[in-house]
Amino acid sequence: MAYLVKQSDRAPAVTSPVPVDESLPRACVIGAGSSGIAAAKQLYLAGIGFDCFEKGSDIGGTWVLDNSNGQSACYDTLEINTSCPRMAYSDFPMPADYPPYARHDQVRAYFEQYVDHFGFRHTITFDTTVEDVSRAADGRWDVRITGPDGTETRTYDAVLVANGHHWDPRWPEPAYPGTFDGEQIHAHDYRSGDQLAGRDVVVVGAGNSAMDIAVESSRVARTTTWSVRRTEWVLRKFLLGKPSDQVALPGWLPWWVTAARLRIGATYAGSMTKYGLPAPAHKPGQSHPVQSDQIRERLDAGAVTARPGIERLDGDRVVFVDGTTAPADLIVWATGYRVTFPFFKPELVSAQDNDLPLWKRTVHPDLPGLYFIGLVQAIGAVMPIAEAQSAWVAETLAGRYVPPAGDVVRRQMAAEHRRDTKQFYASPRHTMEVDFDHYLWDLDRELKAGRERAATRAPAPAAEPAPAPRGGGVRRTLARVLLGAARWRAVGEVPQRGVLVGAPHTSNWDWVLTMLLAWRYGITIRLLVKKELFVGPLGWLLRRTGAVELDRKNPAATIKELLAEADGGDPWLIGIAAEGTRSRGDYWKSGFYRIARQTGLPITLAFLDVPSRTVGWGPTFHPTGDVGAAMDVLRDFYADKTGFNPEGFTPPRLREEDRT
């Protein structure tokens, strides 16, 4: 479903300190704005040691009017363009008495409440500037900071950059020809209508800030002219009395569905051409949406005059490309921002024309341990995205998530860049564009895949081995659906390490369910199957899934060959077999126990129980030769998970093979 935070989603307050796990990597968070506090909260609750440095003494970044860090672009009439349930962090809804679109002071108060609710204010170091971030000799990160106690350098395993991207004003480049006798400011320096009162104001730009400033100017200035070089589709904030962004769709839907929704919204809002602006050169959905319910009212009232782009400046007037002019003693340039990182040397990290390629807009593929939080231009709010990115990074640092191989990361990054290039028109404002709901869905999908990789501790290979299959998304989905449709219940913990090798060779059910288990959890598996099954359709399917003919006389040799093919350098292997079916009698099969004894490798048993329709992972253990003790472990686990207590079971095969 589409992202929408309800009051019932509020997490319990954190009232006791969360201890730091000193065995985990240590991190640095740069900034305590909306993205920085999302990162700090996730690291804190994960027990990861970190420092969060904030240049000023305020929490909330750009949402703090006159922020002490000197970098906020907040003005007195600023309100959010995403409704509260779509902007809130997932486990902390905005107060129920907030309006649909909260004011900047309400958003600031919300951030303060968020920090105190989760108890991590003490982790933020205020009035401290990050001067330089560079690679240490050992591959970690040296961070030079300046604060009340002077300048020092600290070393971290990871750095989370959350310094924002609406603080370094971008002025027109090149500057417009001519001279201007009045005052020029950037929208970043605008605070209130007092700066506009009684003046001839020209506001330049087509974004949300430009429209807000033009609307306020129309109420207090002598004249207000709004200059738009490239017209945007201006959407309304409300649709049939409800916040229009809440008419949202599931993130898994293709982009054209979102684009169609934006087109409907643009059609409903109406064209801007009747006000003298040219028709947009792009379709709705091919640019970052802008919203305003008031700009049309002020244009209709004649309080704002719309003009095309500027041709030149001429003393106390501005000349536009259509030949018209307007009086001006103040120009407000609402022309966007540059993406810059003053603490990085340009040769290490820079965003030429605001373009910084990142995997999932978070990970720099060439700089391990460096992450960017909230560096997106979202069709929606940044805060939930920053929260999801931070949770992803926290799981990475805690070892619960493992990324795919480097070449997979680069292929995905290139594909996403091609997709975004096709979806949005070429502009510095679209280099970081993401579709809010789709991004959250896609990142959640990757997080789940990485958890499965971490659970098996088997790093994804650089190139897919042949013929060994891998648990891709389609296979995982198919396995989940089939196991669910058959009403089989999966239980037990997924093994934590190793390449898993299956040898179900007593029945078709064994290998089918074992394969479904492997697909369900994304585990690389090679089935060891007796020769007799490699016939007909079943044999064809076995070969397609990478099955290997079992050497019944020397199965350990077959396993050792597979070990030699395994990627990732894991020093040992876990065996997997379908075990414990009472429909077949009164014993557990023992072949893997004997193989484990011969190879000295641990073994994990996958079991199935037909009467209770239970399938899952058994315990992992090193066979010691004490058959009775091993069988007790298996019996106890089996009874606990299936509810069946095989008191009368005897393992004749296990005893017999142990004697050999």
Automatic annotation (TrEMBL):
Family: Belongs to the FMO family. Belongs to the FAD-binding monooxygenase family.
Keyword NADP: yes
Presence of the UniProt keyword Flavoprotein in the record: yes
Keywords: FAD, Flavoprotein, NADP, Oxidoreductase
SUPFAM superfamilies: FAD/NAD(P)-binding domain, Glycerol-3-phosphate (1)-acyltransferase
Protein name, entry field: NAD(P)-binding domain-containing protein
Domain Phospholipid/glycerol acyltransferase: 499-608
Pfam families per UniProt: Acyltransferase, FMO-like
Region (Disordered): 452-472
